[in-house]
């Protein structure tokens, strides 16, 4: 079964565990990973890895360097991702437990975190603060956000949370090549 069909089926089964009907576009994935510090041997984490669009791009970019960790709440998607990417540490778990999930795999600090988590995940746990807490100095957090919805209270709360967790927050986009169009929020820790 194709990734798109699995994603659709899993969304219908449990919208809160899957949170999207469509995979991210190449344009959105590129915008999400561009700010991440990927030189040398970085440790990079994905939150809400889904069908693995960011996973695929990071694997190509890292070319076997560093360590890649993907966190996915939906166990069906996590299992598919692990089968396709044996070189990636895939964790079937809740991003709200990020420090504990990483510690369970011997990781305390990471260089970058890319998140495709929905607003509900940010409402349930302080994702921005958790990401900031595991980032090494100079680390970067990227969060996808749908364009046009940035005026809604949950999106505004996400930006406020990022501004209180990170030394610098910028917005990349709009990314018109995504359906629906999106933007990327970029949080940076102090150097």
Automatic annotation (TrEMBL):
GO molecular function: methyltransferase activity
Keywords: Methyltransferase, Transferase
Methyltransferase domain residues: 44-139
Alphabetized CDD domains for the sequence: AdoMet_MTases
Pfam families, alphabetized: Methyltransf_25
Protein name as annotated: Class I SAM-dependent methyltransferase
InterPro entries with a match to the protein in the record: Methyltransf_25 (IPR041698), SAM-dependent_MTases_sf (IPR029063)
Domain of life assignment: Bacteria
The keyword Transferase is assigned to this record: yes
One Gene Ontology term from the biological process aspect of the record: methylation
Keyword Secreted belongs to the record: no
């Amino acid at each position: 079964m194709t990734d798109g069909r699995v994603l659709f089926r899993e969304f219908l089964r449990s919208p809160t565990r899957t949170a999207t009907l469509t995979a991210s576009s190449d344009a959105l994935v590129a915008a999400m990973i561009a700010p991440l510090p990927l030189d040398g041997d970085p440790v990079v984490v994905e939150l809400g890895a889904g069908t693995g669009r960011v996973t695929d791009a990071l694997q190509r970019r890292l070319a076997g360097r560093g360590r890649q960790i993907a966190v996915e709440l939906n166990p069906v998607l996590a299992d598919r991702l692990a089968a396709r990417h044996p070189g990636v540490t895939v964790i079937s778990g809740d991003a709200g437990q990020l420090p504990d999930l990483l510690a369970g795999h011997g990781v305390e600090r990471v260089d970058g975190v890319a998140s495709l988590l929905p607003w509900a995940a940010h409402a349930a746990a302080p994702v921005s603060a958790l990401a900031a807490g595991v980032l090494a100095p100079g680390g970067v957090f990227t969060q996808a956000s749908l364009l046009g919805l940035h005026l809604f209270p949950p999106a505004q709360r996400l930006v406020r949370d990022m501004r209180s967790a990170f030394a610098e927050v910028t917005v990349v986009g709009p990314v018109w090549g995504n359906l629906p169009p999106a933007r990327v929020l970029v949080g940076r820790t102090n150097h």
